[in-house]
Amino acid sequence: MCYTAASNLKKKEIETRFQVQMEDAEYTPYYSVSAFLYPKLPVICSDHQDQALLIRWGLIPHWVKSHDQLKDIRMQTLNAKCETIFEKPSFRTLASRKKCCVIVNGFFEWQTNGKAKQPYFIYLKNHEPFAFGGLWDEWADIETGEIIRTFSVITTPANPMMEKIHNVKLRMPLILEPGKERDWLNAVDRETTQQFLHPFPEQLMDAHKVSKLVSGRSGDPNVPEVQEPVAEEPVQGSLF
Predict the structure, then answer these.
(1) Structurally, how many domains does the chain consist of?
(2) Is residue 33 part of a domain?
(3) pLDDT score of 232 more than 80
(4) Range of 54's domain?
């Protein structure tokens, strides 16, 4: 799955790389942030392709009727499996017409060895910003009337490198091919959408072990050190 991301990019980097205008709002860069905190990340939506909006992670479907229902559903919509986005009630009406690009520069996953778990930072080999493919929706707060946009990150089966890192769940986020982000946003039918739903090539990715600071148990993980390698060279394509 994908529950911890890095999006510590400058506004100018985002605007240049994705040819968008950043929303004029307070932007918090994250060296590491958990989806379970429902953070706001820079996101390009299918209906605002010239803007990067700050949108909360954790999709609230438009049909949610109460705050209690919201809490139950949102924990289950941080990710959306690519195999079931056209079937699951939370995603099926969004899968063709409400796509988004979640702008990041990396993400974290844990490798399990018995009872031990080793975190890795994963990124593109060229160290460029990239985008997760996701789905978004709008929900009208039943108490305030406020319109709230939220998103879910789509996941795919793991590629060979990610199978070694995320070696229990064997999943990875849907990483969009650089330069194809607008094609993703404009894919408005099932057949075209499914052309994007595959693992990103491992030869274009790198990863390295990081400290357990990323867990947040020993301090604030939103610091540059969280991405630094620990006592090993970066992984080049294959871990072993």
Answers:
(1) 1
(2) yes
(3) no
(4) 4-230
